[in-house]
Amino acid sequence: MPLVERGRNMCGIVGYIGDTPALDVILSGLQRLEYRGYDSAGVAIAEDGDVFIARARGKLQALRDNLADESRGKKGTLGIGHTRWATHGKPSEHNAHPHRAGRVSLIHNGIIENYLELRAELAAEGATFASETDTEIAAKLFEKELKGKEPFEALQTACKKLRGSYAFLAIDQEHPDRIFVAKNATPIVIGLGDGEVFIASDIPAILPFTKKVIVLEDGDLAEVSLGNIRIEHEGLPVERAIEEVSWDAETAQKGGYKHFMLKEIHEQPGVLGETFRGRLNLDEGSIFLSDLEFNEDYVKAIERITLVACGTAWHACLVAKFFIEALAKIPCDVDYASEFRYREPILSSTSLVGVVSQSGETADTLAALELAKQHCETFAICNVLGSSIARKADHVLFTHAGPEISVASTKAFTTQLVSALLFATFLGQKKGVVSSERVKEIAQALIELPSTMREALALEPQLEEVAKEFYTASDFLYLGRGSCYPVALEGALKLKEISYIHAEGYPAGEMKHGPIALIDKDLPVVITLQRAAQQFDKTLSNLREVQSRDGRIIAVTDSDRADDLREVCERVIEIPFLHDLLSPVLLTIPLQLIAYYIAELNGTDVDLPRNLAKSVTVE
What we know:
The chain is built from 20 helices and 27 strands. It has 619 residues and is α/β, with parallel strands linked by helices. Helix 4 packs across helix 5 (151-160) and helix 17 runs parallel beside helix 20.
């Protein structure tokens, strides 16, 4: 298992205290975190009684260029650095970290959920703001509490007012020999060297310098100096164990996992939290999508929605159709971008076209978006800020999945599903067709989703055993009903992509219209069956037909009728039930792991399958 928790935010943090120039150490550490993706970078170096800050939009080279002619910051031996993946405020130099507030310079990973409330309080006290970020709020809050308080007490008081996931490092100009650290639901490790201390959001940043690390736990606060590391939890001093890292540099980037795909499968509970964080109001029963600025009269006038995408994103659109029609009561079509762009789609001022893309650069999807913009309003569900699709769509809902390195999409798909559910609920609110009680129910389920997904991931050993039993098969058939039919399609696609085994996904009710001819003792049939399926008995009847033809059935279900399935299935994988609308998200996890382990057993290149690219940017 990994030494540290799965990353929940894709920004990079590096801090250093020692006897060599901090700038060099920090920049090299940030460079080792580049695989995580970022849109801006910055450093703060304590030097000659002052704190020098440099920031730049874009890659680290832009920051290096800004520093090239700068004489300051080159000699200081204490500093902090950051690479930012924007969540609040667009990518820009003024939104880049570090943020300064008086004597405080601060960098931050995560999302402060109550930042608007805190911003209003600070503004009422006369504070002004230089950025659009939630990070600046943390800096100003810490700086405010430093007035009249010892620094560690100020840190405690400030953090009590913060709600959300965060990890931050701060320098107090009046105490330039130490770095203040706070950690809640976002990773931070402290590395111990010979006369040096390193702090980072991920082990690869500090691996060349030390293999001795302290992993901070949620709620820990720390004051780090060369002579002492003070850690407190809920006001009490604690000691955290020093652990020895045995990874090489490449393994460290993968968080201790053998492949990026497996790492990204396990990152899903964390990134799904990022997808909905700050967008739910459980008390009022409402969804806030500040990314979307739809005119309310226009929303009420929408007569039809068309969703357009390619590959895995197209499967997400098929699930989104169920969400939109159930919650917003608007008819919804789903089309392949490669087909949509070459037809003459019937669109009008009462139409809305949505495109879904992880990269925001998919050529067919981009062309479909440009065609749709000639006729109606458009929106995008996208992961990459600043991408072509994100810039060109009228409205954008970002998934906040973070960089996805493996070619086979996993966390991008599940964050697209959650984004689609948020979007459908948002539309239902705007149209007045979904009650606040229903929204509260959905919001509560979303809050519980990360922990429930971790329960599903705990079935990994069982799923590895399934893979060992079936990895030599040359064909698979995947079946599903309702919103789990697209999950079956996605499961088949994952298997095809990374193991090179032929697999097809079908609606369970269509099995007798062709696929039944394929069934024999050599064909594994994977059925995804959700608890809310109205046609459970009919699906069970389908499975008995498979059984009578010697087909080998693997059931993946959150149904409370698993015992009925055991009568006909060779394997039954039971995952926790959370909510009927979230069954497609949770039922996806076992299919991802089955595909991964079958590919691993067959010795294929899991992260870079043959003939495939991460983003298809040409026709």
